[in-house]
Amino acid sequence: MTDSASAKDILRLVSSGVAASRADLVRELGLAASTVSLRVQELVAAGLLTESGEGVSRGGRRPRLLRVTRHDGVALAADLGSHHGRMAAVGLDGTVMDAAEHSHDLTAGPEPAVDWLVDRLTALAERQREAGRTVTGVGVAFPGPVDVASGRVLAPSRMPGWHRFPLREVLTERLGLPVTVDNDATLMAVGEHLTVRQNLDHLVVVKIGRGIGCGVISAGRAHRGANGCAGDISHVRVDAAQERPCSCGNIGCLETVASGAALQRELALHGPTVDGTADLLRLVSDGDPYATTLVRAAGRHIGTVLSVVVNFFNPQAVVLGGALAAAEPLVASVRGVLYERCLPMATAGLEITTTVTGPDAGLLGAGLTVLRETLPHPEAS
Question: Which of 59, 146, 169, 286 is the most buried (most CB within 10 A)?
């Protein structure tokens, strides 16, 4: 069997509505009808798919309709930022349940963060079980590089004490559940791809919040690189940053002039003081000239770095997410720079847009990754 015929991909196509019959799966996967039929029969036998009713005929027998079996299993998902976390339960069909925001400062170190995570996730798990759902595992989107194989955090900026911390191992022991840990921008890209952009094989998703991250989907799969830091555009040097020191220990990084934290610092020096990204967005929405100028400039800086990515990687879409993606002047600036600086062939058909899944993108990526790893079938992965 080829990877494209895996059970998780068939379930993804059916649950998303892209494929409603065996014929649809043959068309989407590009495989022989006999190959698709065998895998569908296996999934029906495993209780993961049902096949009943009749669809619209396209010139032959009316096809039987496929549906993902209602599944009471959920994964717990935590999408972490440096000063907050969004947590929820995620169903196999991409439903996000009981989502809530919680405040916590990850820069205080891993031990208090683990206690905080365990408390919140334990309470979330209890609510799911009370609702009759089975908790199959936990997915964590972490705001820094992660060695996915070992579940260790690797040298995150602004977070002393976290380097090589075995987050997956510690959470697995404390929660008694299988745990997956990955970079937050990567899981944002996975969530957006699995739920609303399944037709795109090459995708760049940029998370613009207090920091800046970038997730990459290549040939339909998350691309993490050799050491788990693929897509880290935050620490690319840009001329506008000059000699500004960065939290990574270098100077002149994109993060120092285009991140939410950088814009808030700049406003505190020369404009109205803001208390977080929401205040900054409010000023932009109200037409504050200085705040609007700052986010436009940030968009140009981000677009300048992304133009290299687009020329090199040639994605089908550049998708902007995170809190600052709600600032239209920033999005317009990124779009303008990409069309100005990229090769015509690289921008031909290129979609430059914002996330459809919004704040749920990271949760969906974390939760669906766990669910697809714990499907009750030996060929599911």
Answer: 146
